[in-house]
Structures are given as C-alpha cells and as structure tokens.
Amino acid sequence: MSPRPFGEALRDLIEAVQPAGIAGERIRVTDAYFDLPFEASLRGVGNDAEFLGDFPAWRWRTVFDRPRGRMRVRCELGDSL
Amino acid sequence: MSDRDTGLPVEQFIQALTSQLDRAQDAMALKAHVRPLTFAVKDLTLDLRAHFGMSGSVVHITPAGPGDSSASTLHLSLTSITRPMMEENTPHLSVGTDEPTLQEALGNELTSDERRRLEWAGIHTVSQFRELQSHSGESAIEQVASIPAARLKAALERATRPFVDTVSPFPQEDVNAPPLLTIRGRNFVGGEPPVVRIGGEPVPVVRANPREVLVAPLPHQFRGDLTIQTAPGRIATTRLNFAEGPATASLETKDAIEEKET
User: What ipTM describes this predicted complex?
Assistant: First the structure.
C-alpha cells in the first residue's frame, strides 16, 4: 500500500476520535494525544516535493518496509489559527 | 512521480511538511462550518529516520529507505501559531490592491523556483520585495531565498522600469475639447514626471501617477511609436495606430513592449 500525503493521514487520525452519530451530538472529546509509529518518504510533484507520511500498514515488519519513525501529536478542541 | 532518493534541501522539506499540516488544518476547518467545535493540532513531534548530506552550503535530507539501518534521526517539534502571535511577530508588508505579481513584474528575470522561494519568504509583490530589501538588505533575502544578491538587484531594477499595458482615449463630455489619451501601466513616475513622445516628438503630459499618465497629443500624434521615459535608460515603447483619429478608439498596441537597456 502506497503511503498517503501526510496531511491526509493526520486528518484521518484526528477525525477518528471524534464521536459520530448520536454520540457526536451529546459528547465531545476535548483533547487527544497520539504517540504512534510512522513511516515517511518524499515524492516529486512537478518541481515540488510532497511529504508522504503514514502509519505502518502491518504490525510485523518486512525487509521492504522503511525504518519507522515516531509521531506524537496533541490536539485540542478549538481553533489553532 | 518518483521517490526523491536524492533528497531535498531541509528548508524545502520543512515547507513540504508545513504544507501538509496546512492541508490537514484546512480540511478540519472546513468541517467546522458544519460542526462549530472541531479539533485543531496544537503540537506535533516527529522522529524521522533520514540521511543528511551537504551540497555546497545546502543541507539535504533524504528519508531512510527499506533495510537502511544506519540512518540518522531527525527530531522535529512543531507548535501551532495563533493569529495574535503571528500578527505580533510578523512585520507588516503592505500590498496594493492592483499591484502586479512577481511574475508580471519580473518576467523571466527570476526562475519559477526562485520566485517560489521569495513567496515562501512572504514576498508576493514588488512593493513587498522593496520593503523587505530596505528593512533587511539584499543579503538577508539572499540567505532566505538562496538567490544571489546581484540577481536580486537586477530583478529589482527590471521591476522599476516603466511598462505600458494599454493606451485608450480619455472620455470627455465636451466634444470640442482637444482629445486626450490615457496610458495605463506601471512605474510611470520616477524622480521627475515622465517624458512622453509619439513619433519622436514630445507630447504634453496633463497629469501622471505611477499607474496612469494622461497626455494631450496633437492631431497628427495618434499614430507611431509612443515612448515613456522615467529616467535615463528607463523607457517603455509601444505602437499607436488610431485608424481614424482617437474618437474611433481603434487602437492597436504592439504585444511586445520594447524595453531599452541603459
């Protein structure tokens, strides 16, 4: 599986902890902290580079996998910008 | 598209990373229109396995590949910047509403890569370029954008030359009033009012500002080469060709503006 652009992986991760459906109407997660293994690479897009970063697809590593890094992200309810 | 096995300057890598963060934040902000309270990234820490190398004075980063056990670890911590923090710490660079972009003003003087690096430094227009140059000097911009100071100087010199966009008859209520022409473009005012000539003869200038010059040509001066000179060597030339006088407004301007070098 090809790694996704980092922004997509980050967005999906953060949205995953938002309660959906009826739960979403009644409760809110106010903050979340993730500490996850992470695989990064770069892809050329025209003259630019796109930063690809995704979570490992498999728990067990193979020789074809890139060395894993680590990502820690803290999110809060509200606006940052 | 291919993997960047040769790596990337660290500045560009950071730019690629922040651009991805912006995309994630934008997607979440979009959702905030539907759901008023949404998550925002406050802090992000990445430990990246990568190789580092030097190319001249530029540090390159290459993400580690499969089976690569000797890679270094880059520890990056990012925190979100709030709007008040940004306003407090960013010098205000003014932007005119009808200002030409860097591409329009500089043409091919700088490459698209160089223009992009200037934009990363917050320089989107020539006035921002000049403002930052007067505050910080060319060497500071040179460092940020990796563009030699001499090339920056040449680019700014080009950006200060007069440039004609259009020439059109000036509408007047009195049909018996002598016809006037409006010349629109940029950089029309230097140290002194511009000197306008048509067919080599001087034309009276009624009024002039940096974006527009109003001239009063004589009846035989509605055809021929129009030149505007703002300083020695700073001349823009275009061709006028009113078929039957200015009232017909059938003006043909030459696509290419000839700019004479000093």
Answer: 0.83
Q: Is B82 on the interface with A (CB under 8 A)?
A: yes
Question: Mind telling me how many Å the CA of B57 is from chain A's nearest CA?
Answer: 20
Write out chain A's pLDDT in tens, 81 residues: 678 899 999 988 888 887 777 777 788 788 999 999 988 888 887 777 889 998 887 788 888 888 889 999 998 886 544
Domain-by-domain residue ranges, chain A? 6-76
Same-domain status, B70 and B22: yes
Distance CA B221, CA B104 (A): 29
**3-class secondary structure for B185-227?**
EECCCCCCCCEEEECCEEECEEEEECCEEEECCCCCCCEEEEE
- Indicate yes or no: CB of B37 within 8 angstroms of CB of A28: yes
Closest Cβ–Cβ partner in B21, B38, B46 for A38: B46
Instruction: Tell me the average pLDDT of chain B.
Output: 77
Q: Is the pLDDT of residue B46 over 60?
A: yes
CB contact under 8 Å between B40 and A5, yes or no, is no
The DSSP symbol for B248 reads: G
Domain contains B75: yes
- Residues from chain A contacting residue B50 (CB–CB below 8 Å): 40
Q: Is the same domain home to B115 and B73?
A: no
* Contact assignment for A43 to B1 by CB distance below 8 Å: yes
Q: Which amino acid is at A73?
A: V
Count structural domains, chain B: 3
The 10 Å Cβ neighbour count of residue B104 is 14
In a domain, B2, yes or no: no
